[in-house]
Amino acid sequence: MGVDTDASIARRLASSAIGALNAQLTAALAGVRAGLDAYREHVVLAQADPRFPAALDRSAHAAGFTTPGELSLLYHLAIAADGPGRIVEIGSYAGRSTIVLAQAAIDTQREPVVAIDPHEVPPMGHTDQRDLHEEFLDNIERAGVSSHVTPVRDYSTNAAANYDGTPIRMHFVDAVHSREAVLEDVGQWAQWFTPDVVAVFDDYLTSPGVRQGIRELQEQGLLRRDGLTVGKMAAFGPPHLLAKAPAAPGGRALMRLKDDRRERLIRLAER
User: Fold this and answer.
1) How far is CA 215 from CA 80, 188, 218, 241, 259, in A?
2) Exposed/middle/buried for 79, CB within 10 Å: 0-12, 13-18, 19+?
3) What is the pLDDT of the chain when averaged over all its residues?
4) How far apart are CA 173 and CA 166, in angstroms?
5) In principle, which of 32, 34, 112, 168 could form an S-S bond with 148, CB 3.0–4.6 Å?
6) Where are the alpha helices (DSSP H) in the chain?
């Protein structure tokens, strides 16, 4: 049976101390990031259109992962994109973002939002067998916006194949967060985009696949390179329309960087 030497004891104590220090630094860094996120959210909401808080309140009962700042981005771009055409949403989940987009359409007396989602059972992140489509319909009815929502219970590619050809002025993608899905969710619909279309993507900052798909679409000329970020979302469109959406410090500057520098910065921030 071995006997610990002073050196081995010292090494164990040092290793334990380093581990504890790393845990403290990780917790401190997480706290700093949370504080910065809260500050950015505050800056965005402080610039909101006076009508936005009512839209946000209407969506509060619906389950979802979209933050108030991100909902602000959707609302303001839905109002700013005031040319011909309608709004198409790919991936509605329980309707939180749909409600805000529909309220923007109501506030500006525009066409109903086309909300596309297969609403499979069980829904994402759940093991129960609740009917998410019925929950979605109940949520938009409860919010008082059902008159301005056209639900399509189907996959994006199938919905595109059966689309009526109405021009699209705003395209919001929050479906499967992969390169292949992004290419489909834009590529199948781009033929109906107006020249000033605004395209918004959820999980841009958290999904390398989403970013890769967007870069390829930009190379194909299907998306503009002008953009901004709010929360984890990114929007692309004409600068004069993007300028009308409230953004936090850095949200516009990040998108002015070249692709490779932006990607390195995003990956560095993830560590």
Assistant:
1) 24, 16, 5, 21, 8
2) buried
3) 90
4) 18
5) 112
6) 6-46, 52-59, 68-80, 96-107, 132-142, 156-161, 179-187, 208-219, 239-242, 259-270
**For 49-270, CATH number?**
3.40.50.150
Sequence-distant (≥ 6) Cβ neighbours of residue 73 within 8 angstroms: 44, 200, 230, 231, 233, 235, 245, 246, 247
The string of pLDDT tens digits covering residues 25-57 is 555 545 555 666 788 888 998 999 999 999 999
> Domain residue spans in the chain?
1-46, 49-270
Position 49, amino acid: D
Tokens 């992004």: give the residue.
Answer: 182
Q: What is the pLDDT of residues 143-189, one digit of tens each?
A: 999 999 999 999 999 999 999 999 999 999 999 999 999 999 999 99
- Contact assessment for residue 68 and residue 231, using Cβ atoms and an 8 Å cutoff: no
| 205 phi/psi in degrees, rounded to 5 | -80, -15
What is the distance between the alpha carbons of residues 207 and 133, in angstroms, rounded to a whole number? 26
Interatomic CA distance for residues 159 and 140, integer angstroms: 20
Q: What is the pTM of this model?
A: 0.86
Rounded CA gap, 59 and 144, in Å?
10
